[in-house]
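Marked as duplicate of an earlier ticket. Keeping the data here for the record.
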Amino acid sequence: MFRVGNGIDFHRLIQEPFRPLILAGVEIHSEFAFLGHSDADVILHAVSDALLGAVGAGDIGVHFPDTDQSLKNISSKVILKKCLEIAGDKGWKPVNVDVTYVGDHPKINPIREKLVESLASLLGLEKDCVSIKATTSEGMGSLGRSEGVMVMATALLTSKVGQ
């Protein structure tokens, strides 16, 4: 038995020298960072929402509200781990994840392999079960003006029955 979930996340790009830019659990050298209540890892947020969606468990805002000051600057690795636990408690585990990054900064191609390796490790998957693609919005809208980025993620989960 299988389930599919989709996740989407947006974060504003800022120039903040003391805030790291984190993607798929990897700190990326960049003049930019993402603004958010957590570490704002837009890839892990979209993947976490995809996992939660597949098992009918809401979204990360339900489990990690940005109104909870105790969660300020929480690592998105913690968020993803909890979402994997929620899926697991409901009897599901990921099979593969497909991610699309929409934005101009940072450029994904030079760091893609690091991102895939990290995300695969965090999900407990082989690298060939994780895809991270990137595109731009061709200069259109706020994403085209490099005001932020968007990530869409799709996760396929399978039942843990029989393990």
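See parent ticket for discussion. Residues 52 and 86 are 8 Å apart (CA to CA).
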